[in-house]
Write a structure and sequence with these properties.
Layout lengths: L6 E6 L2 E6 L3 H4 L4 E3 L1 H9 L6 H12 L3 H18 L4
Antiparallel strand pairs: 1-2, 2-3
Helix pairs in contact: 2-3, 3-4
Length: 87
């Protein structure tokens, strides 16, 4: 899985936000605020990744157990999927 194009992760006033760019701004009005792990996973999804790769990356970055990482990845991916951000 991988993110669709048309969005960019930015740092604004110490917050990590996703904003639309280019023609995406026509249909998407607003921005999405991400916490640290959400921003990390968003960056990982810039290239095609499997769920397992995301879990391993999250474990490595945050030194958390597999169950916690798996739950976090599943929840994040589900939200992105429902919102239409993944291809």
């Amino acid at each position: 899985m991988k993110l669709i194009s048309g969005f960019s992760l930015r740092t604004i006033a110490d917050s990590r936000v996703v904003v639309p760019v280019g023609e995406t701004t026509i249909n998407f009005k607003g921005m999405i605020t991400l916490n640290g792990s959400g921003a990390f996973l968003w960056e990982q999804l810039g290239t095609d990744k499997t769920e397992t790769e995301l879990v391993l990356a999250l474990q490595d970055e945050y030194e958390i157990d597999e169950q916690t990482a798996l739950l976090d990845v599943k929840q994040f991916v589900e939200v992105l999927s429902r919102a239409g951000f993944l291809q």
